[in-house]
Amino acid sequence: MLIVKKKTRSIKQIGLERFVQRLPSHHSRYSSIENALRTTRAGDNGEKILAGVFSRFQIPFQHYVFHDLNLSSTGKFQIDTLFLCRQGAVILEMKNIAGSISFPTGQNQITRTLKNGQVDSFECPSIQLERNEMLLEDWFYARNMSVPIYKAVVFPRTQQHFESERSNLKILFPLEVLTYLRNIGDLSPTLDDGQLREISAALMESHRDYNPFPLISSFNISSSELKTGVQCEKCGLFGMESIHKGWGCHRCKYVSADAHLQSVLDYFMLVDNVITNRDCRLFLRLDSPQKANRILKRLQVPSFGDRKGRHYAVDLSDIELLENKVRRDD
Ligand SMILES: [Zn+2]
């Protein structure tokens, strides 16, 4: 057994949490950011549940599990969990949606009804599964591989009620996933162990981490609409003052040596993947170019240009490293 790319709290969720902090609550798009955060959080939790099933239970035959794969063939596509065995590839999509779910016939949507009577519509998971199946088929085809593809949607809430399910859509609860996969494992194999290893290596090679940043552009918000300043990690105030030892909060008197790190990370996740000394001073509300220079230099991220034209640019892995650093300092 091999589990590749185990899922944790996503960097997108962390970015959206910072977005909610930095956007004034009276902003017209505030609730759409909150909604995006809620959806991302539900998705992350659902995927954690599925990853937990794979780590707790044994599957007694040769297989590989990939979580959160981003691939491209005739189009870009993302698969929540891909299970690979000698019988073929199984696409598992997670749908963490609360409420009673109904599948109206002849529609590409599902509706859910909450206890309070609220009704919402979502794209039917069968649409996404069929699209992913087609793109994965194309991915195999481009590599001269012929692999049978199976697909199912997983709803992580075991108390969930479904109405008028579709005959062409396999629905599973997390613990049913194992039986479903074991049944596929009983079919006659079409791949040998060597081919399995080859496909697994090709998937890893082809996977690209998805970079959701900077977030303001996907929500059509301008950087001038965000709260600036260094945030006090004790009382939440934006606008810590630059002092000799670092940063001081005039409201709660907290002093921090490196509170600016979170703000620079916020800049990269929300505003732009490139920062200059001037951008840094405006965003941190800092007067001293020397201090801004020291802050940027110590980030240890790639820089370009010299002196006044110097700018620092990050990719997703730089952002993840910086995020780890901020969290460790908590
Ligand atoms: Zn404070």
UniProtKB/TrEMBL annotation:
Domain (NERD) ranges: 42-159
Superkingdom per UniProt: Bacteria
A matching Pfam family: NERD
InterPro entries per UniProt: NERD (IPR011528)
PROSITE patterns in UniProt: NERD
Name used for this protein in its record: NERD domain-containing protein
Species of origin: Sporosarcina quadrami
